[in-house]
């Protein structure tokens, strides 16, 4: 999914200096952003108070939207570099096309994982006909410098590992949770999991104390380490946790996001992640001149133009251990 904000801002993210090295409870509120003509999303990362969670660098939550009489999601071809996109649905379907020839309908609780590497473009749209409701999340994972130039590719995994406990069903989207490992390709220590809680549940989820974590509420309301978190908001949890107390008085859907703190600082502009002004400027030129990012075939409409770069110079202050 694209960042369609025509007033795209530069984000300098990552680096160990931004990491809270102990457990915290920091509630993040979303910013509402219009995506295309008919979809509004709640943007939770980057956030005014929090830029990354491990390698997770971008989180949009949308729906549930009644699109029975609407076109639904309609995101024209647009470019990506330096990142992976993770598409995750609770309701509806999304048709994915990309410049490496992928054509895939993604359905609820199936992993659509696109690794942009050096350059890729794609489109996303609600099929015709489509289900009445659309509800999901779109996330980006920053690629570490050593893997930023990998060949672009797309993965679709309909069969993901599931971990269960009384009142909790956890589908492992990326990485490993409680011994279960997703088939999705990762390039940095990371975890993503979909948590379905039934009403009346009290449970403790095992965590890695070396990871930083956050929980996104997809639906319902749950108490995360004692903090009530409602749909469309996210609770940042910091590091140093070995377990996470969960409680739901009624059914709730959550996403657990975590990973080893990302040690590199990055520059994120529009739909690109780079390390410098030159990275971003070259990506924009290549996209606008029709080189490098390939062509998305089969989409009925023109590609998205890139926004203008800001007048101030983009800076990346790289920081490694």
From TrEMBL:
Gene3D superfamilies reported in the protein's UniProt record: Jelly Rolls (2.60.120.10)
Annotated SUPFAM superfamilies: RmlC-like cupins
InterPro entries reported in the protein's UniProt record: Pirin (IPR012093), Pirin_C_dom (IPR008778), Pirin_N_dom (IPR003829), RmlC-like_jellyroll (IPR014710), RmlC_Cupin_sf (IPR011051)
Domain of life: Bacteria
Pfam families: Pirin, Pirin_C
Requisite cofactors: Fe cation
Cofactor note as given: Binds 1 Fe cation per subunit.
Designated name of the protein: Pirin family protein
